[in-house]
């Protein structure tokens, strides 16, 4: 077997297969972008294991799964269930592959099933819809085309799709890993994003809704949630009320001080809204693309993956300011056609 991606990043197999004090196993599943790895959790069951978020399908990740299970003394047939927090490819991508290896059923929210089909189904139109929306918001045509090619290339990292996925809905309860978990929904990052909260122990599997040290991307996309930043912040205010003391995120290491981290994320977005509002008050009308480059820098032009998320994040904040009345939207003719600008609206 060749070198796994984790080993190529300088992590040994021992550092990437972590036995938690609670009996869980955490895999640092390799991904080929700046976050380096996504957390996959294995929760012990009677005679088997539940897998939460199996990772992005790449040859390196397949090799890592082989090595990680061998190192953990787990047979493929001992995986009895696959649970997904959301449909983003770094969490969903290996679900169908792992299902074929194990025969285990896959569970995710109905919204996640819908969006996975929309993004990667045989009649997929999402790539064109998103890049055209970004072009209207000022993304230059050559960058939009590069992003379109990148988005279409993601499809091979999520196939095969899981079959007969079982629905999990917010408000339900799910027994796994010896605990009874409340199923919570988080808005703003991904439609139908699920979290699992064990009130008895204070543990929460929070996916990408709350992470330490990094802020979840706010996932604006056309023809979806009209105000994803509001949805995200509303979700955080609900999470703020939980008595959670042990958080297991999709990226980075498990952490405590969950409520403190939730408040930090709220403060981060409140500050960013003020920063963007001040930028527009001082500079005059700008497209989302111009605003995006002022916030995140021009280096993203060479990285369609990061540009996609930076544009979504920027538009989400501009929409929130527009709905608050701080900004107004204008449509103008440009060299590439109609373009959307935002302008300061408070006097």
Task: Give your account of this protein's structure.
It is built from twelve helices and 14 strands. Strand 11, helix 9 and strand 12 form a beta-alpha-beta unit. It has a seven-stranded mixed beta sheet. A five-stranded mixed beta sheet has the order 8-9-10-11-12. The N terminus is likely disordered. It starts with a helix and ends with a strand. The protein has 347 residues and is of the alpha/beta class.
Question: What descriptors fit this protein?
Answer:
single chain; 347 residues; alpha/beta; Metallo-beta-lactamase, Chain A; 5-stranded mixed β-sheet; 12 helices; 14 strands; 39% helix; disordered N terminus
Number of helices: 12
Whole-Å distance between the termini?
65 Å
With strands numbered from the N-terminus, the spatial order across the biggest sheet is 1-2-3-4-5-6-7
> How confident overall, as mean pLDDT?
94
Largest sheet, described in full? 7 strands, mixed
Ordered list of secondary-structure elements with their pairings:
Layout: H1 5-8, H2 13-16, E1 17-19, E2 25-30, E3 37-45, E4 48-52, H3 59-72, E5 79-83, H4 89-92, H5 95-102, E6 106-108, H6 110-120, H7 126-136, H8 141-153, E7 166-167, E8 173-176, E9 179-186, E10 193-198, E11 203-207, H9 228-239, E12 246-249, H10 258-283, H11 288-296, H12 304-324, E13 327-334, E14 337-344
Parallel strand pairs: 4-5, 5-6, 6-7, 11-12
Antiparallel strand pairs: 1-2, 2-3, 3-4, 8-9, 9-10, 10-11, 13-14
Helix pairs in contact: 7-8, 8-12, 9-10, 10-12, 11-12
């Amino acid at each position: 077997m060749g070198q796994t991606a984790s080993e190529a990043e300088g992590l040994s197999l021992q550092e990437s297969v972590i036995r938690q004090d609670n009996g869980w196993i955490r895999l640092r599943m390799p991904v080929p972008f700046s976050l380096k790895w996504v957390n996959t959790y294995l929760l012990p069951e009677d005679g088997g294991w539940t897998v939460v978020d199996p990772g992005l399908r790449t040859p390196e990740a397949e090799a890592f799964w082989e090595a990680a299970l061998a190192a953990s003394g787990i047979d493929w047939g001992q995986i009895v269930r696959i649970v997904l927090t959301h449909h983003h490819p770094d969490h969903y991508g290996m679900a169908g592959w792992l299902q074929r290896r194990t025969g285990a059923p896959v569970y995710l929210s109905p919204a996640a099933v819908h969006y996975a089909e929309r993004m990667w189904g045989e009649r997929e139109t999402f790539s064109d819809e998103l890049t055209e929306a970004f072009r209207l918001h000022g993304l230059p045509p050559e960058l939009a085309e590069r992003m379109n090619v990148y988005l279409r290339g993601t499809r091979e990292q999520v196939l095969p799709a899981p079959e007969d996925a079982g629905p999990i809905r917010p408000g339900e309860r799910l027994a796994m890993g010896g605990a009874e978990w409340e199923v919570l929904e988080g808005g703003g990052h991904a439609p139908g994003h699920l979290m699992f909260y064990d009130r008895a122990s204070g543990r929460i599997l929070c996916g990408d809704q709350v992470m330490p040290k990094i802020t979840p991307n706010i996932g604006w996309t056309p023809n979806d949630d009209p105000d994803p930043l509001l949805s995200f912040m509303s979700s955080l205010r609900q999470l703020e009320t939980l008595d959670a003391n042990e958080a297991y995120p999709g990226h980075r290491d498990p952490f405590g001080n969950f409520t403190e981290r939730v408040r930090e994320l709220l403060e981060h977005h409140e500050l960013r809204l003020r920063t963007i509002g001040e930028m527009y008050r001082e500079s005059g009308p700008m497209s989302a693309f111009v605003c995006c480059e002022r916030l995140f820098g021009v280096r993203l032009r060479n990285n369609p993956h990061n540009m996609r998320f930076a544009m979504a994040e920027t538009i989400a904040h501009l929409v929130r300011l527009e709905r608050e009345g701080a900004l107004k939207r204008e449509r103008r003719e440009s060299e590439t056609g109609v373009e959307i600008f935002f302008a300061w609206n408070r006097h």
